[in-house]
Amino acid sequence: MSSPSPNPSSSFNPPKSILIVGSGVFGLSTAWSLAKRPEFSKTKITIVDRSSFPAPDGSSIDTSRIIRPDYADPAYAALAAKAHETWRQQGPDELGGSGRYSESGLTLVANRGSNGLPYVRSSYENVLALNKGTPNEGTVHELKSSEEIKNCVRTGGTNGNWGYINTRSGWADAEASMIWLRKQVEATKRVTFLIGTVCSLLYSSASSVEGVKLSDNTAIKADLTILATGAWTPTLVDLRGRCQATGQVLSYIDISDAEQAALAKMPVLLNMSSGMFVIPPANNILKVARHGYGYTNPTTMPCPSPNPSPADTTICCPRTALDDPTLWIPQEGEMACHRALREMEATGWNGRKDQKKIIQDSNSSDDINLY
């Protein structure tokens, strides 16, 4: 949807109704933005989601997500830095308040000679450029060796042999932040929430969408339909050759009070050579995960198109613990998590019996940034 012209005499006519499919971070933030804009004051806004909120297998709902401007792309780094300003607002009713955001610092590392090193170097240069001439100068420090990384992480082990720490980055309680966002949307009294599983789009012509059809054959029509459906989008739109949803490794381990106290002061650790990251624990749960290409779940289904050709197609469809309560991280991913823990903690974590693991389909993102 194009932005309306600021010229009052422009011919922009806002839609009379907008339907948003999905109440994750993109769906809720879109609804919140629209509800606050005067141009849409007479527009009916509806959100439909297949689950009650918060969705237990939505990629926006989790114990934690990294909050950082530390990206290799300059434009994206600048955008994330803008979002970071909101996360750092710590009033009890503000996004970052009441423990929703923790500024632990981020140690971004790589192994010399690996494919991940250029990313870390570019990210380092970007955050230095963003901080230049601002009060934030001096909050980013180069780590030139494994020993410097070890001293920075303070967990007894090491990971990578070159990188830096940005002391202004951190992590968010993802679920608590989403609950906060939902309350902001509800407070506008402009948005209607519905529960229903969208099985297909409704087309008035070969290229014009007029709404959605639910699994019970109910039709919901709107002038504008917005899909904020994350990894489920390929079930509604033919995205072959454009993008593919993958399942990512997220693992959790119960830790003791002493381990919680010892690890709570560590920075977020993200290794761009291995893709492994560790987030400081909260409530005696330590999260270890991997950002990577992920796993696919090929599924044959009718082609999601008004004129399907072929009639059936194979897509990567999300498979979560709601579909299979026994779902477990593939052995390869589990071993990678063990290796990351052994590298981070010199005393080692092998043999722990109280581990809890899940695998969740998502969009290969380890962050939530609200803009």
From TrEMBL:
Where does the record locate the signal sequence feature?
A: none
The record places domain FAD dependent oxidoreductase at 18-292
Q: Which InterPro entries match?
A: FAD-dep_OxRdtase (IPR006076), FAD/NAD-bd_sf (IPR036188), MTOX (IPR045170)
The annotated region (Disordered) lies at 351-371
State if Flavoprotein is listed as a keyword: yes
Similarity section: Belongs to the MSOX/MTOX family.
In Swiss-Prot or TrEMBL terms, this protein is called Putative L-pipecolate oxidase
Task: Tell me what organism the protein belongs to.
Answer: Glarea lozoyensis (strain ATCC 74030 / MF5533)
